[in-house]
Design goal:
Ribosomal RNA small subunit methyltransferase E, Alpha/beta knot, 6-stranded mixed sheet, 232 residues, cytoplasm, Alpha/beta_knot_MTases, 12 strands, single chain, alpha/beta, RsmE, Ribosomal Protein L25, Chain P, S-adenosyl-L-methionine, 6-stranded parallel sheet, 2 domains, 30% strand
Length: 232
């Protein structure tokens, strides 16, 4: 199933207009023709079935025949991840986090962040692709924060869970009941080298739970996948 993303501003009076890369993908890659059926999501819970009515060099106009709207799934999982050095691994983590259901992603500079190599335009494109790939209709918001403290102050959640490699498995169980009874839970994963002792102390002071992802030492991007997979 091929799904196309059209933001709400481009959906009016029973028609949706595909522009830029979405229009190119529909007309050039998928070779859509007038009369073909398309499925569209708007990133805010809307899902539309429509028929292609007009194709130009820069746009594809779709007449909407059916639409459905859904609320964001509960609980919402917010991923906080320390920025890692290799951009391809960071982008992999963002992509897989969204496919696994992250509603929001905050990338932050931590004490162990070695190098920042983040392209916001690529992350936004990845967010759209991952939403479509996983058949979701809500677009994940990806933000970059200059520090961990700023992210913790800005992001509103009910629970904070921190993946920490030094937590014993027997004492680092995830409280699934608490997560599922909440509206929003923040899942924190550190960069290369994990979190510093000062950062761990800050988490504890904010009421966070330190949890184990198992006995194996994981790369940051692998930890993201392992963490979010706990809630499928």
């Amino acid at each position: 199933m091929n799904i196309f993303y059209v933001p709400p501003a481009q959906i009016n009076n029973g028609f949706a207009e595909l522009l830029d890369q979405e229009a190119i993908h529909a007309s050039k890659v998928m070779r859509a023709r007038e009369g073909d059926k398309l499925t569209i999501v708007d990133g805010v819970g809307g899902r539309y079935e429509g028929i292609v009515r007009r194709i130009t060099k820069k746009s594809v106009q779709v007449e909407i025949k059916d639409e459905q709207h859904s609320l964001p799934p509960k609980p919402q999982l917010v991923l906080g991840m320390g920025i890692i050095k290799k951009r391809d691994r960071l982008e992999f983590a963002v992509e897989k986090a969204i496919e696994l259901g992250a509603a929001q992603i905050g990338l932050f500079r931590s004490e162990h962040t070695i190098k920042e190599n983040v392209r916001m335009d690529r992350l936004e494109s990845i967010a759209v692709s991952a939403m479509k790939q996983s058949l979701q209709s809500h677009l994940c918001n990806v933000e970059i924060y200059h520090s961990l403290d700023i992210m913790l102050d800005v992001v509103t959640v009910d629970n904070i869970l921190v993946a920490h490699e030094k937590v014993d498995e027997t004492n680092g169980d995830i409280d699934y009941k608490s997560v599922h009874n909440s509206d929003r839970t923040l899942l924190l994963v550190g960069p290369e080298g994990g979190f510093s002792e000062d950062e761990i102390e800050e988490f504890v002071n904010r009421g966070a739970d330190l949890v184990s992802l198992g006995p194996n030492r994981l790369r940051a991007e692998t930890a993201v996948v392992a963490f979010l997979s706990q809630f499928l």
